Amino acid sequence: MECMEKGALGMTRRQVVALGAATAAALALGGCAPQSPSPATGGGKSALSFTPGVYAGAAEGRGGLVTVEVAFGENAIEAVTVIDHAETSFISDMALEELPARIVEHQSTGLDAITGATVTSMAIKAAVEDAARQADGDVSALQKAPEIEKSTEVKDITCDVAVAGAGAGGMGVAIAAAEAGAKVVLVEKTSNIGGNAFVSGGLLEFIDAPQEMRAEMTPELEDYFNVLLAEARAGGAAPEFVDALQADHDAYYADGKTTVYDTTGLYALERCQVERAGDYSSITADTPVNDRESPFVKVGPWLTGLGMELQAPLDVCFGYIWPNFTVPADQSAGYGGAGYFDFFKKTFLDPGTLDIELITCTSVTELIKEGDAVVGFTAVADDGTTYHVRASRGTVLATGGYAGNPDMLKEYNTTWSWDDDTVIISDNTAGHKGDGIVMALDAGAQVDGMGSPELFPTVDPVQHIIENVVCFGPFLNKEGERFVDEMKGRFDIVEATLQQTDHMLYIPCDSVCLAVVDGYTMGGIGPSEEALVERGMLYRADTLEELAEQAGVNVEGLVASVAKWNEMVVSGQDPDCGRTIFTNEMPIETPPFYLSPATFAAHATQGGVVVDGSGQALRADGTPIEGLYCVGELVFDRLGVRSVGEGMDVGQKLMA
Question: Which CATH class is domain 454-604?
Fold first, then answer.
């Protein structure tokens, strides 16, 4: 490794490092040359031929260039090393660590991608092929898929709690149950823990937090509280509840406190406003003003009791005004949600401090039943191994929603104006196909809300990542025309976008408003500005005309729309789309100018299995399915990092 890095000094990533065959053969770079004929050779004379030496190859991954160095002999790949990349840790780790050795072992790039790290896997293989071309190799021969015999092994495992899915909800169940003494088997479809929560902003509701973590109350928040209660009364909330919440609020401040008042009842009102379009009918006279047994109250102390430090003071989340959200204080592992799973891995999984058996790259395929009771599940690993996992305390599905399953989205849709030909992308991580919902249905579970998935209005059209959209300005279509009030809700913006050419929108801004810090996105820890420009996820030009031409947007339309935008920002009047809020907007006038192309994506599905207060799946008649529990996004009306608290609650109750 050290020899190779020194040998490459002064060379570009794509340049060949010409070394002799004898030198190359002595290098150990992630795998040894095969000692017996590889499947790629057919057992006879090798089909592969190279000019011996060490060559550098590169290809685009999810975060940028993945660069490899490959040592070639005359008829074999002798070593592959990834020397540079910008891929996401956890998600890409297995591909980066194991795929190079597999390529050497099988003398082929025609291998399956590592589950959950497809883009990184494809980049590694393409980079090796890039190096092979430089070594005068036959890439088509290298791409031939080897004949790899799948395992036929069957393993029977018994445990207290079996969990399918290692995202926020599944990890919450596994850790809480194991804390209480359970033997837990945790099976994950992809190669990494974390699910969607790993790549999220990581914001977790911490309701009724300790005083020292709360923000100070402000007049603006007090005004919002009064407006929220008035809206709740008008929107159908039980007046007895609203009166009780007001009285509790008044008593809180009568006690001399100066921090933000916060209860589960207040949070329930805000969820009605933000997630249910102002429908407060679910707030009844029996709704508790402050349920201190709620996971939203218990999860913060539970996490800090495990040793995790949470950020304070609590802050807001996009779309929510009340400051009761937190994230892990340690963000060294990456942005937002990565902090939870870095902590879980280092504290519990790596040292084995809890009795949790984690099995990755393994898909749960069916539930095991005895009569009407669920007693475990069957899972099949990528290598062919079959696991029959039986659990004495409970089987938990935490497999996520179905945002990554366009067919399922279209089958159940009752909300969106798409048709059979509409291309529906997702901003989720790999694996969210609705598997758990299908298995729960097969077991007799009831589902609800399946026709109203939540779509996010602005993801980049290349990688489908929210944070890659870094411009803040008017929403334009391909004709350069502004078509919607940018302050509308997600539903209105997506529906308006569905009526535009190619379902695309384009957001121009100038150098003042670009969401880039020191050349990088996401507050300085995301992809670089240059990487976004190189990959067509951001356009940059010194004039608006050139900007429009680069993006394929009508030049006259864009220039005219920006001129109108600048007038509106100054006047605060929007005669075209009726926008009334221009608080933080600025004119687009300081070059260089930028433009983010964007489209909509399936974000969170919200529909799913109906459960009771303990997380147990219910049938249509309201009776529980013995042994079957569900947490996270596959549950009706559940989503987000908050699932870690719901998982904690289910795990504790299973072992009570």
Answer: alpha beta
CA dist 637 and 169 (Å) reads 14
pLDDT at 113: 92
> What are the pLDDT digits (tens) for 20-46?
222 222 222 233 333 333 444 433 335
Question: How confident is the prediction for the chain on average, in pLDDT?
Answer: 89
Indicate the residue type of 135: A
Q: Which of 590, 593, 522 is nearest to 555 (CA)?
A: 593
Separation CA 336–CA 324 (nearest Å): 16
Residue positions counted in the chain? 656
Tokens (6 digits) for 480 = 């350069």
Query: What's residue 39's pLDDT?
Result: 43
Q: Are 597 and 465 in contact (CB under 8 A)?
A: no
What is the C-alpha separation between 486 and 505, in angstroms, rounded?
11
CA–CA distance, 507 with 480 (Å, rounded to integer): 10
Domain locations along the chain? 2-142, 154-201+333-404+615-654, 204-326, 454-604
Q: What are the backbone angles phi and psi of residue 21, rounded to the nearest 5°?
A: -65, -40
Q: How far apart are CA 332 and CA 90, in angstroms?
A: 13
Read out DSSP for 494-514? HHHHTTSGGGEEEEEEETTT-
SS3 460: coil
Angstrom CA distances, 129 to 70, 72, 111, stand at 10, 12, 13
Pick from 302, 218, 290: which is nearest to 642 by CA?
A: 302
Task: Note the pLDDT of residue 263.
Answer: 97
Q: How many CA atoms lie within 13 A of 22 on its CB side?
A: 0
The pLDDT, as a whole number, for residue 46 is 55
CATH number of 2-142: 3.90.1010.20
pLDDT at residue 4, as a whole number: 30
pLDDT value for 320: 83
* Integer Cα distance of 296 and 267 in angstroms: 10
Report how far residue 654's alpha carbon sits from residue 656's, in angstroms, rounded to the nearest whole number.
Answer: 6
Position 3 scores a pLDDT of: 32
Radius of gyration of the chain (CA): 27
65-77: string of b/e by CB count within 10 Å (b at 16+)? bbbbbbbbbeebb
Enumerate the β-bridge partners of residue 597: 506
Query: Residue 28's pLDDT is what?
Result: 27
User: In angstroms, rounded to a whole number, what is the distance separating the alpha carbons of residues 628 and 178?
Assistant: 18
On the question of a common fold for 154-201+333-404+615-654 and 454-604, the answer reads no
CATH architecture of 154-201+333-404+615-654: 3-Layer(bba) Sandwich (3.50)
H helices then E strands: how many in the chain? 19, 21
- All residue ranges of the chain with pLDDT < 70 are 1-46, 318, 524-525
Alpha helices in 135-182 (DSSP H): 139-142, 168-179
Strand partners, 652: none
Place of tokens 């919200």: 606
Write down the residue that tokens 């890659």 correspond to.
468
Spatial distance between the Cα atoms of 72 and 131, rounded to a whole number of angstroms: 9
348 in Cβ contact with 171 (< 8 Å): no
